[in-house]
Amino acid sequence: MINNKNVVVVMPAYNAAKTIKKTYDEVMAQGIVDLVIVVDDRSTDDTVAVAKGLPNTIVHTHETNLGYGGNQKSCYRLAMENNADVIIMVHPDYQYTPMLIPAMASMISNGLYNCVLGSRILGGYALKGGMPLWKYIANRFLTFFENLLLGAKLSEYHTGYRAFSRELIEKLPIDQNSDDFIFDNQMLAQIIWEDEIIAEVSCPTKYFEEASSINFSRSVKYGLGCLLTALKFRLTKMGILNPKIFKTSG
């Protein structure tokens, strides 16, 4: 716990058997996490077996592969059912260091923010940390246009390291979001729609063989989805659209 708030870490897992225990050990070493929830999206390796051997961990398995967004929907539902006050998503592939958990949880639990992102761009070390050049260029391009259309000033929208308050999760219509990778982007657009301030902390970048990543074709589909989400946001603000992912008075 931190500031008398229950801290729950959720891990959307897919074929993470090689890295999930290392990630878990570092998560628990921070000394403030009350519970870890692993949601396995029909892995073909030993992810479930390894996860079931971890203390203070709930392991939930999907009967079919639902996708990254579908996995997160299960993560947040289970976190809420288990009395989470602060929910932090940590990928079990060890790409994002769990050592930032205390800082992110503190910013949520003391009431300063309802959302905190671990940014790979802040600090300027993304490329030095191993981010492929094409991913960096795509990140910068998408972020520029998303900030323009969403009226925000984030350093990036594409990190998978995120912390949320219970109150924020409760009011977001995340069930209306995609079950694919674009879920992440839709969720941030929804948070901005709610006029919430999104905080960011600098997160070291780590890329290695076991770290999960989407291929180029999926990345193109994701990028187009990000731009479409931002465009829908702007058109909804203008009263032209009324999509289900944004709560409107209409």
Count of strand segments: 7
Q: Please report which band the strand proportion falls in: under 5%, 5-15%, 15-25%, 25-35%, 35-45% or over 45%.
A: 5-15%
CATH superfamily (homologous) name: Spore Coat Polysaccharide Biosynthesis Protein SpsA, Chain A
Number of domains: 1
The largest sheet has its strands arranged as 3-2-1-4-6-5-7
Large-scale geometry: globular
Determine the N-to-C terminus distance: 40 Å
Helix content: 25-40%
Specify the biggest β-sheet.
Answer: 7 strands, mixed
CATH topology: Spore Coat Polysaccharide Biosynthesis Protein SpsA, Chain A
CATH architectural label = Alpha-Beta Complex
Ranges where pLDDT stays below 50 over 5 or more residues in a row are: none
Q: Can you describe this structure?
A:
With 250 residues, the chain is α/β, with parallel strands linked by helices. It has a single domain (7-237), classed as Alpha-Beta Complex (Spore Coat Polysaccharide Biosynthesis Protein SpsA, Chain A). 38% of the residues lie in helices and 14% in strands. It is built from 8 helices and 7 strands, in the order E-H-E-H-E-H-E-H-E-H-E-H-H-E-H. The chain has a 7-stranded mixed sheet with strand order 3-2-1-4-6-5-7, with helices on both faces. Helix 2 (47-52) links the parallel strand 2 (35-40) and strand 3 (57-61). The longest helix has 22 residues, at 216-237. The radius of gyration is 17 Å and the shape is globular. The mean pLDDT is 95.
